[in-house]
Structure prediction request, 336 residues.
Amino acid sequence: MLHFLTTGESPLNPTFEIITLVVLVLILVADLVLAYRRPHVPSTRESALWVGLYVGLALVFALLMLLLGDAEHAGQFIAGWVTEYSLSIDNLFVFVIIMTRFSVPRKYQQEVLMVGIVIALILRGIFILLGAQLIENFSWIFYIFGAFLVYTAVQQARQSHDDMEDTESGVIRFLRKRIPISNEFDGGKLRTVIDGKKVFTPILVVFIAIGTTDLIFALDSIPAIFGITTDPFLVFTANIFALMGLRQLYFLLGDLIDKLVYLHYGIAFILAFIGVKLVFHALHENEVPFINGGHGVEWAPEISTWTSLGVIIAAMAIATVASLIKIRIDRRRDAS
Prediction:
């Protein structure tokens, strides 16, 4: 894995890259241990402090990138981090559905979320390595990545997260027919004993549902960030920083997550924008023989990192503000 991290266009010292990844993994492990040793429902203040800490760490890292590297790579990290953070927030919508669907006790939702985050990290790590290899050996893969993101954007805009509930019910029925699963939780335990027999608790179903969801989101998020930067180190760090504090963000936003009804349109726009950017990049660097005789297409624009960052932030801001305005209008309507 380190071979991929220490190659590419990054101007940073490989030792700095390795130390950074080790420190980030240690922070995530400490967060995981803390969640398991002290299961509780964090207050809004506690959640806000943790989210602020992790966002601050990401900004400090961007500053280090600027001081030790250059402005271009610092900008690529920020744009990649904001993109992955946006897609991670989309994860939270589905996590809310899963938690509600399976009636996970709020006290143990921290543990469940941390398992989901670990699964997401592992899956994204695998896809990053695969993506880096594909990009290194097949430049035309950008056409496929771009088309996939545009298709995903259309699906994202058309489909409500509530549509997943029927699929999840099918998963439950499938598992219950083949695996002994109790109807009640036993704290945060994966297995329990009922009438002298060992059976799984619903936690198993929750983990499988979250793991399946994380797989789907990994397929979306990795091509998206490769549209921002092809430096594997920046891709890894942007993903790790995006997932750090996701557990606390879940409790900070609370019921508001489900009320941000236009947020998925903002995320869909971001995916479509990056998809188009990837296609333009593929055209500009074209080596496919049946397109322009295997030569680059000169009219294809190269969208800069800073332009991408501005579009991403604007899309999320507009979608969030529009959702908040709708919440206010609905409240006034209900009050009248």
The first strand starts at residue 191 and ends at 194. The chain is about 75% helix and 0% strand. The CA atoms of residues 239 and 252 lie 20 Å apart.
